């Protein structure tokens, strides 16, 4: 068992208050993600023989800690978004291997910001809301999207008052409406991001201007669609990705609700705080709502352009303290632990939760304070406070308890097919 020191990523979309409010971390700017794992871009640090070392270096020197896995299998994060993240999707393992090789052959440096494939791995991901959390994921039914586009076109036609400068914008919206009515989603996405990208950038700017003047409630748009456009448009007022947002399912998660996003699912996170776990990859194919590298061709090739149900991931109860999120994924699963409530309600001692990891695992204290006692002969013990975590070696039994109401998450390799 090792106490972890975890890097905070300061992306521009991050929250300026969430990590200080939840974890007491000092903030002098946006704080977007707290990373826990061995990703080479920002590995967690642990102390070995009195000296700090990267978790990646520790596992490389002691491969038994990986329990047979070819590298650390997942990356675990706390994510706090004040602004939308990019419209994006992730590749299959086969596509990642081919894309990585192609970019190597093209001479694109592996650390280049122009690179789409940073490694050869796929990147399925699971997101669990910690506080209210809003996202876009997967294409929604085409008729509903077509109706919103028709309303938007009518509203912008009224605003333009016959201006010839707005003719290309209105024509592009009409073409998009027809494609959606015909349920030709792949062509609709390509029209926005490639075929008429300039016209839809102008459309996005006009939408933001209109909403600024009328407000979302009086815009005439569906309230959910208007709120999505307002949220994304406030950060990216002339980005065609704003129009892509109208094609996707809007999902508002309450704490504990989760989504599992496999390869090809087009998605974006809008705002809120969540924990996220994914395969240990940095392969992101972006199409809009970002200042980072955009690869429209690859995004169009990878995206599953079909109407998809909301990909809920419902946890299963393990016992009175534990709920397990276990998508069909070999790289990861996630357990939520709730401790200390019995003591608060009855004044009686709460039994410790025993954990015996089946692979390299990370225990995160989300709220409260955890007492973690190792069951090995050396008697290692740790106290974890909110925002702190520990790396647990495979088959290293520990007992976790809390004197006051506390919450934790346990990340571990997946076990597809388990009950």
TrEMBL record:
A biological-process GO annotation: GDP-mannose biosynthetic process
Pfam families listed in its UniProt record: PMI_typeI_cat
InterPro entries xref list: Man6P_Isoase-1, Mannose-6-P_Isomerase, PMI_typeI_cat, RmlC-like_jellyroll, RmlC_Cupin_sf
Annotated GO MF terms: mannose-6-phosphate isomerase activity; zinc ion binding
Phosphomannose isomerase type I catalytic domain boundaries: 1-141
Protein name: mannose-6-phosphate isomerase
Catalysed reactions, semicolon-separated: D-mannose 6-phosphate = D-fructose 6-phosphate
Compositionally biased tracts (Low complexity): 97-106
Protein's UniProt keywords contain Metal-binding: yes
Cofactor needs: Zn(2+)
Keyword terms: Isomerase, Metal-binding, Zinc
Disordered: region residues: 93-119
Residues binding Zn(2+), per UniProt: 88, 90, 125, 267
Family membership: Belongs to the mannose-6-phosphate isomerase type 1 family.
Native source organism of the sequence: Nesterenkonia xinjiangensis
Note on cofactor: Binds 1 zinc ion per subunit.
Keyword Zinc in annotation: yes
Enzyme class: isomerase
NCBIfam families: manA (TIGR00218)
């Amino acid at each position: 068992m090792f106490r972890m020191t975890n890097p905070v990523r300061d992306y521009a979309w991050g929250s300026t208050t969430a990590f200080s409010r939840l974890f007491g971390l000092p903030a002098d700017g946006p704080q977007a993600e707290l990373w826990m794992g061995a990703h080479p871009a920002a590995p967690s640090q642990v102390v070995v023989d009195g000296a700090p070392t990267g978790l990646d270096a520790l596992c490389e020197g002691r491969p038994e800690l990986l329990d047979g896995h070819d590298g650390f299998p997942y990356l675990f994060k706390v994510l706090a978004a004040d602004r939308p993240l990019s419209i994006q999707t992730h590749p299959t393992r086969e596509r990642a291997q081919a894309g990585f090789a192609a970019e190597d052959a093209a001479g694109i440096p592996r650390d280049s910001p122009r690179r789409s494939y940073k490694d050869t791995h796929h990147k399925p991901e699971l997101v669990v809301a910690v506080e209210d959390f809003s996202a876009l994921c997967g294409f929604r039914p085409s008729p509903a999207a077509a109706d919103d586009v028709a309303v938007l076109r009518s509203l912008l036609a009224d605003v333009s008052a016959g201006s010839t400068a707005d003719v290309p914008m209105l024509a592009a919206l009409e073409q998009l409406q027809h494609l959606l009515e015909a349920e030709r989603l792949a062509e609709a996405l390509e029209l926005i991001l490639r075929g008429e990208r300039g016209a839809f950038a102008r459309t996005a700017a006009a939408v933001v201007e209109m909403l600024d003047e009328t407000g979302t409630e009086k815009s005439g748009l569906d309230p959910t669609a208007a709120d999505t456009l307002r949220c994304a448009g406030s950060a990216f007022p002339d980005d065609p990705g704003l129009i892509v947002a109208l094609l996707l399912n809007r999902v508002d998660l309450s704490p504990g609700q989760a989504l599992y996003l496999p390869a090809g699912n087009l998605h974006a996170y809008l705002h809120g705080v969540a924990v996220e776990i994914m395969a240990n990859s940095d392969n992101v194919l972006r199409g809009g709502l970002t200042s980072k590298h955009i690869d429209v061709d690859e995004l169009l090739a990878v995206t599953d352009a079909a109407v998809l149900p909301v990909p809920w991931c419902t946890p299963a109860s393990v016992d009175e303290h534990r709920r397990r999120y276990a998508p069909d994924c070999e790289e990861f699963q996630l357990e939520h632990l709730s401790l200390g409530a019995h003591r608060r309600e009855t004044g009686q001692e709460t039994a410790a939760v025993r954990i015996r990891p089946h692979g390299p695992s990370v225990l995160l204290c989300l709220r409260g304070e955890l007492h973690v006692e190792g069951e090995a002969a050396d008697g290692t013990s740790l106290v974890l406070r909110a925002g702190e975590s520990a790396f647990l070696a495979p088959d290293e039994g520990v007992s976790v308890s809390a004197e006051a109401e506390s919450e934790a998450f346990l990340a571990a390799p997946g076990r597809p097919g388990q009950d």
